[in-house]
Amino acid sequence: MKQSLIVKGLHASHQKIPVLHGVDLTIEPGRVTVIVGPNGCGKSTLLRCMARLHKPVLGSVHLGGEDLWRLRPQQAARRLAMLPQTPQAPEGITVGGLVRYGRHPHQGLLQQWSAADEQAVRAALQATDVLQLADRRLDQLSGGQRQRCWLAMVLAQETPLLLLDEPTSMLDLGHQVDVLNRVQALAAAGRGVVIVLHDLVAAARYADTLVAMRDGRVLATGTPRQIVTPALVRQLYDLEVDVLAAPGDGAPVVVPASARRANRRLTIV
């Protein structure tokens, strides 16, 4: 079921220190929404508020017209799945065992493991190309393989919305592209996907909607071609850049300015 997630007037704090300041955001199904911004700007806190892992001080998060914070945990877990930046797995767990965890929201006292659960797990393993690794231990795999296994786990949850916090961190370029291509395919199949990324070039390449944040506020929202400009990058990162069009599709490519040009700006009084 396709559902929009709507964030309104969201304020959040860490140990009484304000982190988010009145964030408004709409996440559409069938699109990849990428949140970018400097370290400490509130990207992960915003994602955690959407995932019911961090209670906001003010504001609301609605999915399909329902207030997520008023739902029971199991109800919410059937509507959205989150992959944190540094997920932890039990020692010695197999890939198949990990992916089965994604079916926990669908279990209960009167509903035990079923053929539908088994089918969902197999479909998730196939979608991420790790079916052949199902009997392998997770800790025996490469970083790229492990990340695909974690992605399979959240896919097995069968939710209309996926929240991914830095899913490509610590991956080499080839594995980054592989993971982001798979995420893009999930959105094309109808799921809403929200990703936090540090890599602005990758964000501009894969985002349908780009959300630029700084100091707990959204500075700009739109397609990468609409909003990725030297002025926005300077506002986000205090960095002088050129924005070029990629060969083929014209996606914005952010290139740091030459040292001479950047130094000239720094010396202006």
TrEMBL record:
Keywords: ATP-binding, Cell membrane, Ion transport, Iron, Iron transport, Membrane, Nucleotide-binding, Transport
InterPro entries listed in its UniProt record: AAA+_ATPase (IPR003593), ABC_transporter-like_ATP-bd (IPR003439), P-loop_NTPase (IPR027417), Siderophore_ABC-ATPase (IPR051535)
GO molecular function, one term: ATP binding
Top-rank lineage group of the source organism: Bacteria
Membrane topology: Peripheral membrane protein
PROSITE patterns per the UniProt record, alphabetical: ABC_TRANSPORTER_2
Coiled coil: none
Domain called ABC transporter: residue spans: 5-240
Name the UniProt record assigns to this protein: ABC transporter ATP-binding protein
Pfam families listed in its UniProt record: ABC_tran
Species annotation: Paraherbaspirillum soli
Localization (cell): Cell membrane
